[in-house]
Write the structure tokens for this entry.
Amino acid sequence: MNGKTALVLGATGGIGGEMTRRLLAGGWRVRALVRTVEASGRLPGVDCHVGDAMVREDVVEAAAGAAVIVHAVNPPGYRNWGQLVLPMIDNTLAAARTHGARIVLPGTVYNYGPDALPLIAEDAPQRPATRKGAIRVAMERRLEDAAQAGEARALIVRAGDFFGPRAGNNWFSQGIVAPGARPTTIQDPNTPGVGHQWAYLPDVAETMVRLIEQDGLEDFARFHMAGHWDPDGRAMIAAVVRALSAPAVRVKPLPWALLRLAALVAETPREMMEMRYLWKQPVRLDGAKLAARLGGEPHTPLDVAVRETLRGMGCV
């Protein structure tokens, strides 16, 4: 291992930013690849290299001396996934091969189609029902193939829908509460009675760091987080109402029909509609393997997590 040095790709984003904060708090030297000099001003304590995750030489150079590469970079607003996502993971793999670093990838439930539901273990078949899911499967297959060939090591931690005080664009901020002001209305994207899984970003970052700091981690390791399971789709909305201390706040269904119309002309609504199947049926990740490995999963109580999320969003 090349000491406690980590390169974070996507350090100004949700999971990348949370990983950066947790690594710094744990005594790691953190390096970030940022697009502009101005972005480095938002990352105090981080060794920032200006470059582009789409340029292989930039990633390889920034990864010099790193034991870990956190691959938390995604095209903004779901744009150009097909053209950008796989070249970026290929560049990260090239850097890992060159410097002997372990890649850490936040996983998603997009990899799974209806045949893997409702309770998903790490070895469940990955037969996605969407284009974005197929891209995520290809990403993970690249990592697994490289590990089996002895060329690189990888850790994938899969979790439910992200939320947190600095989570960026996600279903919580796009589908439930708009950031920037105290809400007068809460939207509910759930299908009544259908469970949904959430993941508090500080818990995800804590989990990843604990795993990479363990001795004996497999060359290709994959874990699922239990996170926050909402068994009937009502627990998260109720937690938001409690955090706002406004029991009379209006709760209305997410206008899926309007979103479908918007999807005809805009890419973000189009990508959101592609994922609607995850709100029509229960999708739950089995966290038993992770809990056994760590002796318990990092888990912030839901009310605390929601309150901190709303505070970070400027809603309370």
The first helix runs from residue 14 to 25. The chain has two domains: 5-164+196-230+282-300, 171-193+231-280. Residues 5-164+196-230+282-300 form a domain with the Rossmann fold fold (CATH 3.40.50.720).
